[in-house]
Amino acid sequence: MDFKLLSFLIFHYSITSSSIIASLPLPKQSLPTKSGYLSVNSTTNSAIFYTFYEARNPTAPLSQTPILIWLQGGPGCSSMLGNFYELGPWRVSSSHSHNAKHVTLTRNRESWNRIFGLLFLDNPIGVGFSIASTPEEIPRNQKDVAKHLYIAIKKFIKMNALFKNRAIYITGESYAGKYVPAIGYHVLKKNARLPVRSKVNLVGVVIGNGLTDPISQVATHAANAYYFGLVNDKQKRRLKSLQEKAISLAKNGNWSEATNARSEVLNTLQKMSGMPTLYNIRRHKPYQNYLVAEFLNDVEVKRALGVNETIVFEVCSKVVRKALHEDLMKSVKYMVEFLVKNTKVLLYEGQLDLRVGLVSTEAWVKRMKWEGIDKFLEADRKIWTVNGELAGYVQKWGNLSHVVVLNSGHLVPHDQPLNSQAMIEDWVLEKGLFANHHIENLSTSLSNVL
After folding, report:
1. Residue 97 has pLDDT above 60, yes or no
2. CA distance to 31, 113, 202, 338, 429, per residue, from 117 (Å)
3. Alpha carbon of 251 to those of 68, 220, 246, 259: distances in Å?
4. Closest by alpha carbon to 146, among 172, 113, 112?
5. Residue 10 pLDDT > 60, yes or no?
6. What is the pLDDT of residues 365-410, one digit of tens each?
7. Which residues form the signal peptide (predicted)?
8. Beta carbons of 17 and 5 less than 8 angstroms apart
9. C-alpha dist (Å) from residue 325 to 185, 254, 261, 389
10. CA of 223: how far to CAs of 239, 251, 282, 365, 425, in Å?
């Protein structure tokens, strides 16, 4: 992989529809340390595309520096959206000059690879630059999604001796509210049957604005929109009726129809409210994620990244979304319940997301089967500040942490880059509000007794 070439291309190559411009050389630490393909089926050559960025300023030897794995949602959206639009070391944006539009790559100082390694996986196969040999090989359920991800993660870890024992945190947003629990559950089940040297060192999972228990979550839209002041009581009743239809279909196992019914709820809500996007109710226009496609569809950029130049990059794949159509309304709550008993779990929501937001997550969290759930629900929601400014709220008990990120929507790292960086770093390092205070208090009490 010629990353010097990529550096040149990113900043000096012009294409007809846009120009990629900048005045400074690209810092070495912001280039992908590695990128390419991780085969998930040697017979068919289906493979997951990845980009990996090593920590810019690690606070420990690299062999002891955690690695964050990011999975995008959709279903069918590329993790290059997260990379180049949300939490990667460089982000695309647009500008206009001399009647021409420019796609500009600018440094993201609030990226998640400041002190951690950061791995983006285009999942499932068929998404982004990933390769599915046939549409039939694209996973139709979360167990098959997890099988491919597990193969890819194991192969990535084997690429470099420095990766072998590093702590792994699997993170993601939106439909990754299913992917993340699925691969986390699969890893822990596999680990239980493997010798220590062969285990994946999974330490925690992170779900942002996740669709995890769809039946519980679809039931919240009417009331949430009403209390946001977006619909009146009559409209609320109409939405509630549509919600009940989706719930009934799902409970009867009519999965495809239930997915369509959920879409009707959301489409109706958007029409009623007049919102340009439900992903962030303060935005006057949808997120500009198409800029990622404009950048990545340049032939020379593809060549430098080591991908097939004939692949037409799509931010979100309709083919993959169709493959997972019946999966959409199925729950993975039981996987989260297993994970919270065996590893750390962080849930976070942007306050302004009306599509898969705070109220919908709280609806299923309250129903979790976990011995610590009562204590978690009784825990205070504490005021969270970053650099002296109010950033949101943190509720924590034992292995479960829940964060409300103020003034952000569905794409939290895009809307609040500094605060999202502070959140992930403090949670991984168990600092500030994410410290295990009840354990510390217990230790203090024991010391006093002794």
Report:
1. yes
2. 13, 5, 14, 26, 14
3. 35, 16, 9, 12
4. 172
5. no
6. 999 999 999 999 999 999 999 999 999 999 999 999 999 999 999 9
7. 1-18
8. no
9. 22, 11, 12, 42
10. 9, 21, 19, 17, 34
Task: Give domain limits for the chain.
Answer: 3-216+284-443
Question: How confident is the model at residue 304, as a pLDDT?
Answer: 74
**What is the dotted CATH code of the domain comprising 3-216+284-443?**
3.40.50.1820
Q: Is the backbone peptide bond immediately before 25 cis, with ω within 30 degrees of 0?
A: no
Residue 102 is a catalytic residue: no
Which comes out higher in pLDDT, residue 97 or 148?
148
User: Does the pLDDT at position 30 exceed 60?
Assistant: no
Whether 284 sits among the annotated catalytic residues: the reply is no
Q: What is the sign, positive or negative, of the torsion defined by CA atoms of 348, 354, 356, 358?
A: positive
Read off the pTM. 0.90
Confidence of residue 106 (pLDDT cuts 50, 70, 90): confident
Quote the radius of gyration of the chain (alpha carbons, Å): 22
Active site residue 130: no
Name the active-site residue from 148, 186, 410, 414.
Answer: 410
Span 89-103, average pLDDT: 75
Q: Which residues contact 389 (CB under 8 A, 6 or more apart)?
A: none
Q: Which amino acid is at 388?
A: G
Q: 35, 174, 216, 360: which one is catalytic?
A: 174
